Amino acid sequence: MKILVCISHVPDTTSKINFSNNDTKFDTNGVQFVINPNDEFGLTRAMWFKEKQGASVTVVNVGGAETEPTLRKALAIGADEAIRVNTVATDGFSVAKQLANVVNNGGYDLVIAGRESIDYNGGMVPGMVAGLLNANFVNNCIGLEIDGTSAKVVREIDGGKETVSTALPLVIGGQKGLVEESDLRIPNMRGIMMARKKPLNVVDPVDANQETTSVSFEKPTPKGAVTLVSPDNLDELVSLLHNEAKVI
Amino acid sequence: MSVLVYTESEQGTFKKTAFEVASYAKAVANQLGTTVTAVAINANDTSALGTYGVDKVLNISNSQLDKFNANAYAAALKQAAESEGAQVVVVSSSADSKYLAPLLAVGLNAGYATNVVAAPSSTSPFTVKRTAFTNKAFENTQINTDVKIVGVSNNAFGLVENSGSASAEEFSPSIPELGVTVESVDKATDKVSIADAEIVVSAGRGLKGPENWGMVEELADVLGAATACSKPVSDLGWRPHSEHVGQTGKPVASNLYIAIGISGAIQHLAGINASKVKVVINTDPEAPFFKAADYGVVGDAFQVVPELIEKLKAFKAQQ
């Protein structure tokens, strides 16, 4: 089985978010970048398939050279090779188009992407890749078993979960639950040394329409001061929630 | 030309989000000077849609669509959009809608904006405001394609009533191969889901152990709320992952969010920031959550929560 894991290069979850160029660009100054958490759960599940079922694991990112340390980290975790599509990731559709082209060229059976990236939260790339490839697709995946060419997948739904059966070729929108937080791997020294020698192929992009354009950003208006209520006067809290906030 | 809206139902009954996306579609239709067509799949009674601005309903009754299938639903919506000459397609932010919309976008060559919180600020170019960076910011996004898909964030636009009534007609799309087959569904029918909840009661490590969640559930019961938890609590296995809210968990956009014994790490705050009113109960007055909250109680959850439950019961009894 050939697995492709899509890796988004995103600001660390603790990052303060600021914008530059008159609020039109994300300010990367002082920001630590990491593997998108939803992608890392998928990568870790892919490592399980590699170790238990003999799969090969390729990681791919659509982005400039600045994303290579994130791909090297994925290699250090254990992926066999990496591909970087050398273009700026502008919108969900154009990224999906680049990824679909990589899948077509590489003949992958299983594509695992995070259900969304934690920067732009588009949540559309896995579905669009599946749509472009005409492959089976399961989103919000919290469990994945592969047997030959058939797959059993658990999907989180609003208020519960459902188990579905499907077949390869398959695209997965993954999230926590594919593996547990405690299964995530921190690259060790040997992994980091080996990652330096693994192939990281830079490929040219294909033509893709930019369907949406990010015009500008705004920060939420700062919150007013909190209204403190004494624990001995909870009637006041009930009254505030009813009369002032009008939420109960 | 029209605005098409997918109004989701469950067991034949519309979800609340169906009326919210219909309200949104009506606002867009007014801006464009056109009408709203809703697509209802296996819904029993579509008359309520007129109240929220829908002019026409395409009723799809098909037993192949009894269980949700993203491919089949996307194909049905694509055919409806084409038959109506839809310029804009509006969907909700439910798990199912977010699953089918990217497939629909590819099918219609449509640009898709998710997590949209307001009616378009301009229709030419078509520009919408959406949340990004997990609620740490808003992004103004322009959709460049002829057909546009807008995914409306839950509870962001609200319900807007209109005095109209909707005409209804049958619509029979062709259904493609499913590709994915549902084997079993495991859904608590007696509990409010976080996605649908207007009120969410959430608790963190301050509760000291899973055995202390009884009062959290009781508070949620009194308020008709969903229960949620912080990341450490789900990582420790005190509560299921499905309750984890925050940046890597579920996003919350409720009207009221009550946080008990949660300090308010930046990742947690990001995930719940879209909630309109936040109440924090914490023993530590320095907890960062107080800076993000509207109302706060500095006190011991084990005293405050049971007392709050009593006060709320008394309040509810008077209503």
Automatic annotation (TrEMBL), chain A:
Q: Name one GO molecular function term.
A: electron transfer activity
Q: Which UniProt keywords are given for this protein, alphabetically ordered?
A: Electron transport, Transport
Q: Which CDD domains match?
A: ETF_beta
Q: Spell out the SMART domains in the cross-references.
A: ETF
Mention any one GO cellular component term assigned to this protein in its UniProt record. Answer: cytosol
The Electron transfer flavoprotein alpha/beta-subunit N-terminal domain, residue ranges: 23-212
Q: Does the keyword Acetylation apply?
A: no
Name assigned to this protein: Electron transfer flavoprotein subunit beta
Give the organism, scientific name: Algibacter pectinivorans
Automatic annotation (TrEMBL), chain B:
Cross-referenced InterPro entries, in alphabetical order?
Answer: DHS-like_NAD/FAD-binding_dom (IPR029035), ETF_a/b_N (IPR014730), ETF_a/FixB (IPR001308), ETF_asu_C (IPR014731), Rossmann-like_a/b/a_fold (IPR014729)
Which sites bind FAD? R205, G261, I262, S263, G264, A265, I266, Q267, H268, N282
Cofactor(s) needed by this chain: FAD
Using the record's annotation, list all stretches that form the Electron transfer flavoprotein alpha/beta-subunit N-terminal domain.
3-182
SMART domains documented for this protein? ETF
Source organism superkingdom? Bacteria
Q: Name one GO biological process term.
A: fatty acid beta-oxidation using acyl-CoA dehydrogenase
Q: Which key words are in the record?
A: Electron transport, FAD, Flavoprotein, Transport
Gene3D superfamilies per the record? Answer: HUPs, TPP-binding domain
Q: How is the cofactor bound?
A: Binds 1 FAD per dimer.
MF GO annotations: electron transfer activity; flavin adenine dinucleotide binding
Q: Does the keyword Flavoprotein apply?
A: yes
UniProt similarity note: Belongs to the ETF alpha-subunit/FixB family.
Name-wise, this protein is Electron transfer flavoprotein alpha subunit
The protein's organism comes out as Algibacter pectinivorans
Q: What is the lineage of its organism?
A: Bacteria, Pseudomonadati, Bacteroidota, Flavobacteriia, Flavobacteriales
